Amino acid sequence: MASPQLPLALKLDTEATFDNFYTPERHRLLLNQLKQQASGSGEKLIYLCGSGGRSHLLQACCHLAEAAGRYARYIPLAELIDFDPEALLEGAEYLDLLCFDDFQLIAGRGNWERAIFNCYNKMLATDACLLVSSSVAHSQLALELPDLQSRLQSLSSYRLSELDESERMAALQFKAKMRGILVSDAVAEFIYTRCQRDAKSLFDLLNVLDHLSLIEQRKLTIPFIKEAMDW
């Protein structure tokens, strides 16, 4: 069966920037490494594994690279895995930065494994930087191509770990502040104890509350949230 037609453009999320990313102290080194790579002054080959926030960071790297006048390409494999990898990667070795998101999805897909292996080898002869994001460490990828597995071991590996409870509440307040909304400690704790506690659910709820508060022209207080969410 033929591959679907390639999308005309892969647009980055305008909100996915480093300034808009909550960073606990233990992730400061990781972000510094990513910023340096994006600007062209850091490591050429980076493998980022772990949990929430990977997609945001890869797109932030592309934004930063482009702001510095560099050419970057973001490939979200969750959306593009059914497309022809050869077409998607054409000329990728001449980019300044190539980013693969959800890299674990290529495991067992021979066309993708071969295309990325060939692309990687071409990139070694240029100044292109490679940033790979995966939900698992490279040692846990069930790749069919041993040569690609060995190539991945040469990438500098970093792990993005889940935020703990206090960090998730701080992240909620950080995201609110970026929107110009004041969320007190009491309000953050009230929200946190009454919804799903993963970061994405908290941020999605913040979007809803922000929209409702604008409509009602009211601040995010506990009484307002109780009324708006019927809690």
TrEMBL record:
Family matches, as SUPFAM superfamilies = P-loop containing nucleoside triphosphate hydrolases
What superkingdom heads the lineage?
Answer: Bacteria
Domain (Hda lid) ranges: 166-229
Q: For this UniProt entry, which segments traverse the membrane?
A: none
Matching entries from InterPro entries are given as: Hda, Hda_lid, P-loop_NTPase
Q: Which Pfam families match?
A: Hda_lid (PF22688)
Q: Which residues form the signal peptide?
A: none
Note the PANTHER family from the entry. Answer: CHROMOSOMAL REPLICATION INITIATOR PROTEIN DNAA (PTHR30050), DNAA REGULATORY INACTIVATOR HDA (PTHR30050:SF5)
This chain belongs to the protein called DnaA regulatory inactivator Hda
Q: Which organism is it from?
A: Zhongshania arctica
Print the organism lineage.
Bacteria, Pseudomonadati, Pseudomonadota, Gammaproteobacteria, Cellvibrionales
Gene for this chain: hda
